Each structure stands twice: as structure tokens, then as C-alpha cells.
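FW: tagging you since you asked about this chain on Friday. Here's the raw sequence from the shared folder, copied in full. Didn't touch anything.
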Amino acid sequence: MAKLILPLFLNLFVILGAASPAVPRDSSSCSGQYRCKDNLSGIEICDLHGWHTAATCKNATCIINVGNGIPYCNDP
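HL: got it, structure written out here
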């Protein structure tokens, strides 16, 4: 049983770790990075002046691409 649970836990940890935003909200060293807005209604980009809206989703559909870590709107 333990042999089954450990790999499952590690896979879940890797997936959630890759999908979570790596840059804190107040970070000043985030230039060129993207993230979903807190309410998942759009995508933000960071530049030298802070975080700004780069795109707006039709609904709360912003998700992170697990393969490359880039957020996108999953609108129908």
C-alpha cells in the first residue's frame, strides 16, 4: 500500500508545483513573467513598473499550461 501512495503523492506534488504561480504578488524582480489574476478572469504580465493586465478572459477560465507554465484563457 505504501509503495502505491508515495508515487501518487510525488506525482501530485510535481503537478501542483508546476501549476502554481512562482512569483509572489509583491515581487519586484518579476519582469517578463506571466500569471493568472487572483479571480482567474485574465492574465497579467510583469514589467519594471509591476503587474499589468495583458489579456482578459470571457469568464473565470485562466489556467496555467502545465507543460510550459504559461497562463491562458480556456474560453469556449
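FW: Strands lie at 34-36, 42-47, 50-56, 62-64, 71-73.
HL: agreed, and The chain has one domain: 2-73.
FW: great, closing this out.
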